[in-house]
Amino acid sequence: MKKLIRSTLSGLAIVVALIMIFNLSACGKKNDTETKSLYAQGLEIVQLMSEMTQIEEYVELYSGSNEIKTIIQNIGIGDFSSPKAVYAISIAEDDLAAMVGSNPDNVSEELKNYIMQKSLASLMMQINGMSSVENLAASSVCTVGKTFVNENVTEDVIYLYVYENAIPVAVTFTIGENQAVSASGIFIMYDGFTCGSADEIKSFFNDITVDVSEVLPEK
What we know:
The chain is α+β, with helices and mostly antiparallel strands. Helix content is 51%, strand content 18%. Helix 2 packs across helix 4 (66-76), helix 4 packs across helix 7 and helix 5 crosses helix 6 (109-128). The longest helix is centred in the N-terminal third of the chain and has 33 residues, at 2-34. The chain is globular, with a radius of gyration of 23 Å.
């Protein structure tokens, strides 16, 4: 009986050990996915957008305008392989509300948060609206979005990817439930958008206070 008990316990120990190994392995894979940085996630979106501009069939599917097609083709000429700089742009809720002309005090916190996130996500589209209608349409055709999990993200933020020989790309990250993050990328078509440095970006927004900091690539 004792031998049987020892044998059973030994077998259980092996099973438990194997379960722990499998769990640790699964956790490791999960953490690898969750800890991919916003910098890297944004770059993946930029690469998809760049590829999109070079696929004629895709452009024709979403736009029948020759002028818009030409604009998109010109975007695709740029080199988006390596950004010259990446800037994180954060805007306080009150400042964002003032910027979009909305201050929803008499609504639930859930709806207020939704409105603020919607406003942040549409901010760069509004900047493109300061350009031509054709540029605005071209940027709309080439937007890319994705959703992923990242427990390290604590606030909504815009990452601005600036290039030497290509137009800037803005990727907006907004936080959802259970650490889900929604990301949306858009080409910045407005020539008057100055983004050569953090100070230039701050100056563009004029009387609205924005926090701008450079994001360094992972080593």
